Amino acid sequence: MITLKIGDKAPNFEALDEQGNLVKLSDYQGKKLVLFFYPKASTPGCTMEACNLRDNYQTFLAKGYDIVGVSADVAKRQQNFKAKHKLPFPLLADESKEVINAFGVWGPKKFMGRTYDGIHRTTFVIDENGVIEDIITKVKTKQHTTQILKEQ
Question: Which phi and psi (to 5°) does residue 101 adopt?
């Protein structure tokens, strides 16, 4: 699971977004980046989280942040999720789990008494120099913006 710590350099990544565009960590050099990992597009919790970020997107931009979502969903599912909820940020279709594994968010989970491997809902806030400034592991899907921006 997550071995990264606040103050670590974020793993350099590149993956295709829902439109087939290559997205790399270096694209965000000089900007802050909210990199949020979610288990599955179009599920209730993931929808609440993504829509909370969407609803506060202008606030993030005003504070110098970009946002990128990541799941192991196929590009088509990501496209549908983005279109249906009018999400203004890229969604990486990390089917190979390269980014997911680099950030250590894949591992055993429990749901209704069953154990399985999956993505742990986790958000990394990365500063302008590619250094992790925050890791949120207990994501509150309806108040995620407040968690990230630490507003009371």
Answer: -70, -35
pLDDT tens digit at each of 152 positions of the chain: 678 999 999 999 999 999 999 999 999 999 999 999 999 999 989 999 999 999 999 999 999 999 999 999 999 999 999 999 999 999 999 999 999 999 999 999 887 889 989 999 999 999 999 999 999 999 999 999 999 998 53
DSSP structure class, residue 71? E
Of the candidates 89, 18, 78, 93, the one whose C-alpha atom is nearest the C-alpha of residue 43 is: 78
Q: From the options 3.40.30.10, 3.10.180.10, 1.10.238.10, 3.90.1200.10, give the CATH code of 29-149.
A: 3.40.30.10
* Active-site residue, from 15, 33, 41, 46: 46
- Write the DSSP symbol of residue 9: B
51 is known as an active-site residue: no
pTM: 0.94
Q: Where are the domains of the chain?
A: 29-149
Residue 143's SS3 state is helix
